[in-house]
Amino acid sequence: MTRAARHRAARSRSRHRAPRWPHLGVLRLVLAVLVLAAGAVALARPAPPPQAAAATATVPGPIEVAQQPAAAAVPPTRVRVPAIGLDSGLVGLGLDTTGALAAPADFATAGWYAGGPAPGDVGPAVLAGHVDSSRGPAVFARLRELTAGDEVLVERADGSTVTFTVSRVERHPKDAFPTDAVYGPTADAQLRLVTCGGDFDRPARSYEDNVVVFAQMA
After folding, report:
1. CA–CA separation, 37 vs 207, rounded Å?
2. pTM (predicted TM-score)
3. Is-contact 213 169, C-beta < 8 A?
4. What total of structural domains would you count in the chain?
């Protein structure tokens, strides 16, 4: 074979030889490992923790408040506390979407938790009200001034008046609200009055504490 023939044969073989990629196999292996690793991380990533519920002033929490039959309970209509000059009508209150006791819409009016015992019935009746608003003091502004022995008078729809005597006044951080003591069952008729207290958290637009008045039927 002449030199020219040998040269043409070599050129022909080079055109038909598969191209060599010495690192292709390594690259494919690395990519496969990365994909598998990414999948493993995604599967192993724990689910984000549930958002903690915001601290609420009067949320019943796990306590099961005894429901009163509508026909048996006599709803309250007014609350008076002579020692602090409190005299307010009462509106029925329910729970909001978070399970917390909804506050009265009117800052000048107190409310009664209608899902629990009525004042005068066995169990802890709960009254709630605002302490103030942007316009000034609200219905329960002076609640913290009460002391043991002060009277709380609750008028009812049947014309009767139930008298309670304050036994103690407590203040608790909202994230440590005494749910059991406020909503837990009692052997006799008792009353709780709840409002805000302590320092005002401006960024949160809320007071840091709750004031709770405990009273027993006289």
Report:
1. 49
2. 0.69
3. yes
4. 1
Query: Nearest 5°: CA angle at 55, between 52 and 58?
Result: 135
The answer to the question of residue 27 being in a domain is no
* Number of CB atoms found within 10 A of residue 178's CB: 14
Which amino acid is residue 192, in one-letter code? R
Tokens (6 digits) for 165? 């005597």
* CATH number, domain with residue 202: 2.40.260.10
Kindly give, in sequence order, each residue whose CB lies less than 8 Å from that of residue 124, ignoring residues fewer than 6 positions away: 116, 117, 182, 183, 184, 185, 186, 190, 191, 192
> 10-residue block means of pLDDT along the chain (218 residues)?
52 42 42 38 32 37 42 86 98 90 94 96 96 95 98 98 98 93 96 96 91 97
Distances (CA, A) of 157 to 7, 73, 91, 160, 218: 117, 10, 12, 7, 19
The residue behind tokens 């990519």 is: 31
Q: Is residue 108 part of a domain?
A: yes
Expressed as residue numbers, the domain containing 203 is 76-217
